[in-house]
Write a structure and sequence with these properties.
Order of helices and strands of chain A: HEHHEHHHEEHHHHHEEEEEEEE
Low-confidence stretches of chain A: 1-43, 425-435
Shape of chain A: elongated
Structural class of chain B: mainly beta
Radius of gyration of chain A: 30 Å
Strand order of the largest sheet of chain A: 1-12-11-10-9-8-7-6-5-4-3-2
Largest interface: A-B, 55 and 53 residues
Largest sheet of chain A: 12 strands, mixed
Distance between the termini of chain B: 31 Å
Mean pLDDT of chain A: 75
Number of helices of chain A: 11
Number of helices of chain B: 1
Structural class of chain A: alpha+beta
Number of strands of chain A: 12
Oligomer: heterodimer
Helix content of chain A: 25-40%
Number of strands of chain B: 10
Distance between the termini of chain A: 39 Å
Low-confidence stretches of chain B: none
Shape of chain B: elongated
Chain lengths: ~425, ~120
C-alpha cells in the first residue's frame, strides 16, 4: 500500500494555474461517466448541478441579477431563441431576483426552512456540443437543467451575531439623532407649518364632535390637506442631508465593525439538488433523448471549535442517485462492451476541517451500489484532500486516493493531484454575505 | 441624497380596532426603526430590520396624533449599495401602503427615512 502511495505521489499531476479552479476533462472529448471525471469533492451538493451533470466547468457562467439581464443573456446565447446554443452556462436564483426587495438581513441570516428553501433555490442551465466522430457518433448537443436548494443552512456563528448587536447599538444611536435633527428642521418649513395648522384645526373639530368626519366641510378640508401634503412630498428640496452627515463618525464606526465580517454558519445543514441532461444527436430536437438524471442529498453537522482562531469541523453524509442511459458497460475485462442503462446509488461520509490559519483537510468515502445492473459490482471511492493557503492569494492543494471502478474498467483509478492556485490582485477585506 | 421625508394623512375609524405599522427593508441591509407618537417614542427597543404589524394604539385613541416612522438603514451588504424601504399603516379606514422607496448610497453609508403620518 505504501509503495502504491509513493508511486502515486511520483506520478501525480502538478498543475500551476492562475485563476482557474477545476480538474474537469475537456468537454469536447467524449467521456465515460464517473471514471475520468475527477472531482475534489463528491460529497457536496454541487454548486451548479447542471454543469456537474454535463461534466463541464465553464469558465464563464452568466449569473443575471434581474429579469432584464436574464432575458438579454438568453436571447444573446440563443440568437433570440432561434437556435440551441453551442456552449452556454447560466445560473439564476429566480426568487432572489424577483423578491430581493423583500429580503431583510434578518431573513437572510435566519435558518427557517421556508426562508432557506426559497432564498437558496437556484436553477442552473448548461449546454455543450460534442463534435462528431466520423463513422462512430454524430455531433451531439447536451442540454442540462438542474435545481438546488438548502433545507437547513445552519445558524450564523455567535461571533457574527455579536458584531451585529454592536452594529444595532450604533445604528439605534444614529437613528435617534436623525429623528431629532429632521424633526426640528421640518418644523421651520413654512410648507410644513401650513400642513400642521390645517391638521390641528381638523383634529380640534373632531375632538369637539366626532361626527364632524361625516360633514362636507371635513371632506373639503381633508382634500385641501392632501393637496398640501402632495405638494410637500413632490418638492425634493425638503431633504435634510445634514441629518445624516452629522453622524459621519458613527457611520465610520459601523464600517469598522463590519470590516472583515463573514457570516459563517454552523450546526445542522441539509442541501438537495436534482437535474437531468438531454442529448440532441445531430443537434435535432426530434432525436432528443434523456441521457442522465441525478439527485443529491447532503447533510451533516458543522461545528465551530473553541479558540481564538476560527476552526470549523464538519461531519457530512451524502446520498447521490445517478442514472446514465445508454452507457458503455462490460462485466469483466475481455467481455464485449454492451450498451446499458445504469443507475447507481452512492452513499458516503466526509470529515472536513477548515482553519483560519489557512489549513484545510478532509477525508471522504463513498460506496457505489449499482441498482439495476447485476453485472457491475459495488465499488468505492476513498479520497484525502488537503490544502494550505501560503499567502492571501496563493494556495497549494493535494488530492490522493482511489476512484470508483469504471463501467468498462476495474481496479479503481488512482486519484492524485497536486495543485497550486494563484490569483492576481490584492486582498479586499469586507463583509461577506456568503452562506 | 440619502434621505427621504414623506408626509401622509391617514383616516381612522370610529372603533377600538388596533392600528399597526409594518416596515420592509430589502437587499439584506441592516436597519433600525423607532416609532413616535407626537414626538414620544413608543417602542422600548429599536426595531431591527423588517417588522410586521407593530401596534401603535387603537383607532379611537389616536385621532389628532402624529405618527412618525423613523428608520436608518446601513449598507452592510457589499454585493450592492441599494436600499429598498417600504412601510404600511393599516387598521384605519384604508391601508396606507405606498410603493417602495429605493436609494443608492455610498458603500458602507446610511440612508434615513422620516415618515410622518397625520392621524385623523
Amino acid at each position: 500500500m505504501l509503495r502504491l502511495l509513493l508511486i502515486g505521489l511520483c506520478l501525480c499531476m502538478a498543475q500551476f494555474s492562475f485563476g482557474q479552479i477545476g480538474l474537469s476533462p475537456d468537454p469536447s472529448t467524449p467521456q465515460l461517466a464517473d471514471t475520468t471525471d475527477l472531482k475534489l469533492s463528491l460529497l457536496q451538493v454541487p454548486s451548479a448541478p447542471a454543469f456537474n451533470l454535463l461534466g463541464i466547468e465553464p469558465s464563464a457562467i452568466s449569473t443575471p441579477k434581474d429579469v432584464k439581464n436574464f432575458l438579454v443573456s438568453l436571447a444573446n446565447a440563443s440568437q433570440s431563441l432561434s437556435v440551441l446554443p453551442n456552449s452556454f452556462a447560466m445560473e439564476i436564483a429566480p426568487l432572489m431576483i424577483l423578491r430581493r426587495d423583500h429580503i431583510s438581513l434578518t431573513d437572510y441570516l435566519s435558518n427557517r426552512v421556508g426562508e432557506n428553501i426559497w432564498q437558496s433555490f437556484t436553477i442552473s442551465l448548461g449546454t455543450n456540443t460534442i463534435d462528431s466522430i466520423p463513422g462512430i457518433s454524430p455531433a451531439t448537443s447536451n442540454v442540462a437543467i438542474a435545481a438546488k436548494f438548502s433545507i437547513f443552512r445552519g445558524r450564523v456563528t455567535t461571533g457574527a451575531i455579536d458584531t451585529l448587536l454592536r452594529v444595532d447599538s450604533i445604528l439605534a444611536q444614529i437613528n435617534a439623532g436623525t429623528y431629532r435633527i429632521t424633526d426640528s428642521l421640518i418644523q421651520t418649513l413654512p410648507a410644513y407649518q401650513a400642513i400642521n395648522t390645517q391638521f390641528e384645526a381638523l383634529a380640534a373639530q373632531i375632538r369637539l364632535n366626532p361626527e364632524y368626519r361625516n360633514t362636507t366641510e371635513y371632506k373639503t378640508k381633508t382634500a385641501q390637506l392632501n393637496e398640501l401634503i402632495t405638494a410637500f412630498n413632490s418638492d425634493s428640496t425638503y431633504r435634510f442631508q445634514q441629518a445624516v452627515n452629522s453622524f459621519s463618525q458613527e457611520v465610520n464606526q459601523l464600517t469598522a465593525e463590519v470590516n472583515g465580517l463573514v457570516f459563517n454558519r454552523v450546526g445542522f445543514k441539509l442541501d438537495a439538488a436534482f437535474g437531468l441532461v438531454y442529448d440532441f444527436p445531430f443537434q435535432e430536437t426530434d432525436s432528443a433523448a434523456l441521457k442522465t438524471i441525478g439527485a443529491w442529498l447532503t447533510g451533516g453537522q458543522v461545528i465551530k471549535l473553541e479558540g481564538q482562531k476560527q476552526r470549523i469541523l464538519s461531519f457530512l453524509g451524502s446520498a447521490r442517485l445517478l442514472s446514465n442511459q445508454d452507457q458503455m458497460t462490460r462485466a469483466n475485462i475481455g467481455d464485449p462492451i454492451s450498451i446499458a442503462d445504469n443507475t447507481n446509488l452512492d452513499v458516503g461520509a466526509k470529515i472536513d476541517f477548515n482553519s483560519e490559519s489557512s489549513l484545510a483537510l478532509s477525508v471522504e468515502y463513498l460506496q457505489r451500489f449499482p441498482l439495476n445492473n447485476d453485472t457491475l459490482d459495488p465499488t468505492y471511492r476513498l479520497a484525502f484532500n488537503g490544502s494550505y493557503q501560503l499567502a492571501p492569494n496563493y494556495q497549494i492543494s493535494l488530492t490522493f486516493g482511489r476512484n470508483f471502478d469504471g463501467t468498462i474498467t476495474e481496479g479503481g483509478n488512482l486519484l492524485a493531484a497536486l495543485h497550486f492556485f494563484g490569483t492576481f490582485g490584492g486582498r479586499r477585506a469586507n463583509t461577506s454575505l456568503n452562506n | 441624497m440619502s434621505q427621504v421625508v414623506k408626509l401622509h394623512m391617514y383616516q381612522l375609524k370610529s372603533s377600538s380596532d388596533p392600528v399597526t405599522v409594518s416596515v420592509t427593508i430589502g437587499n439584506q441591509q441592516r436597519a433600525s426603526t423607532d416609532l413616535y407618537l407626537d414626538g414620544v417614542k413608543i417602542n422600548s427597543d429599536s426595531l431591527v430590520d423588517s417588522f410586521s404589524d407593530q401596534e401603535i394604539g387603537l383607532n379611537n385613541t389616536l385621532s389628532g396624533k402624529q405618527l412618525t416612522i423613523n428608520t436608518t438603514v446601513f449598507d452592510i451588504n457589499t454585493n450592492n449599495d441599494e436600499v429598498s424601504y417600504r412601510y404600511k399603516v393599516k387598521g384605519g379606514e384604508k391601508v396606507l401602503y405606498p410603493a417602495s422607496s429605493k436609494l443608492t448610497v455610498t458603500e458602507g453609508g446610511v440612508a434615513h427615512f422620516f415618515i410622518r403620518v397625520f392621524l385623523l
